[in-house]
Amino acid sequence: MSSRNPMRRITELESRIDYVQCDGLAAMKIIKHCHEESTSNMEVAQGALLGLVVQNRLEITNCFPFPKNDEIMEEEEYQLAVMRRLRRVNVDHFHVGWYQSADVGNFLSVSLLESQYHYQTSIEESVVVIYDTAKSGRGFLTIKAYRLTPQAIQMYKEGEFTPEALRTLKIGYENLFIEIPIIIRNSNLTNIMISELEEMIPEEQGTKYLDLGTASVLEGQLRCMMDRVDELNQEAIKFNRYQHLVIRQQQDKNRLLQKRAQENAARAAKDEPPLPDDDINKLLRPLPVPPRLNPMIVAGQISTYSQHISQFCAQSLAKLYITQSLQTAKEAKSTN
């Protein structure tokens, strides 16, 4: 999704989006597509969001998935064809962003940053909607909307990812995105139908809150965090190697400058013109600074996994203490 080009450009000033309103139909289509991709081939599901801007809210009224790489039709042609057909049947066809699936809330990546930058600089009101398949599969509906912060847009516009540039912009993984509140809107008939369906759910389906089978989930999160820590360690090794090379180059430069100063002193004693220092600067050119964008994103991923693991362990410990108290009370009652 690193090179998706939106088909509509907006030249007006950026309108303030206070919250996102998503229709229930669009939310169900996003959920269906994300779960189908996660269960079939474990790929990230992505698609386009359609809707319109009304005052201070962004309304998402429809969506459609992006074609896969193995399909014949070009992606841009596919999107244009879908929007033309929606316009013919009087359905909102304005591009207002895109959506993507995530696993345990960790969606931060270079491709997502680049894609949202292209969207937000072309369509000012656009958002990216992240749907978490893992959390939703365990009974917690997780769907969030994000926009890039002005600092992140400025960072990508300048294209400088050096430590000095990031320090000047005062940007880190904490302020790359800003979360926009999202609400799901349903019609009155839909709410009535949901209430009727809720009464049809068997009682045993809602009694799994004390499930202690959490080892697999915790193991997966710890493995992902270990992989990210290894990746961050490799980035740290690269940066330390760069610093050592810079120090060595500076020592070589100082040695050559001292030698040149001695030569110029000897030439001055002979009334000869001094030699310039330009050839030394050309010989020892500055080393390219390794970009710090990927390490910053990896650090953000580690922080996200750490927060989820902390919350998950706190909930698991609470369940354990509750079940222990129940078991103790049961044993005391049986002995009496």
From TrEMBL:
Domain MPN: residue ranges: 20-152
GO molecular function terms attached to this record: metallopeptidase activity; translation initiation factor activity
Family annotation (PROSITE patterns): MPN
Cellular component terms (Gene Ontology): eukaryotic 43S preinitiation complex; eukaryotic 48S preinitiation complex; eukaryotic translation initiation factor 3 complex
Classification via Pfam families: eIF3h_C, JAB
InterPro entries (UniProt xref): eIF3h (IPR027524), eIF3h_C (IPR045810), JAMM/MPN+_dom (IPR000555), JAMM_MPN+_peptidase_M67A (IPR050242), MPN (IPR037518)
Major subcellular location class: cytoplasm
Subcellular location: Cytoplasm
Matching SMART domains: JAB_MPN
Transmembrane annotation, as ranges: none
GO BP annotations listed: formation of cytoplasmic translation initiation complex
UniProt keyword terms in alphabetical order: Cytoplasm, Initiation factor, Protein biosynthesis
Family matches, as HAMAP family: eIF3h (MF_03007)
Family: Belongs to the eIF-3 subunit H family.
Function according to Swiss-Prot or TrEMBL: Component of the eukaryotic translation initiation factor 3 (eIF-3) complex, which is involved in protein synthesis of a specialized repertoire of mRNAs and, together with other initiation factors, stimulates binding of mRNA and methionyl-tRNAi to the 40S ribosome. The eIF-3 complex specifically targets and initiates translation of a subset of mRNAs involved in cell proliferation.
Self-association state and partner proteins as the record states: Component of the eukaryotic translation initiation factor 3 (eIF-3) complex. The eIF-3 complex interacts with pix. Interacts with mxt.
Protein name (record): Eukaryotic translation initiation factor 3 subunit H
Organism: Fopius arisanus
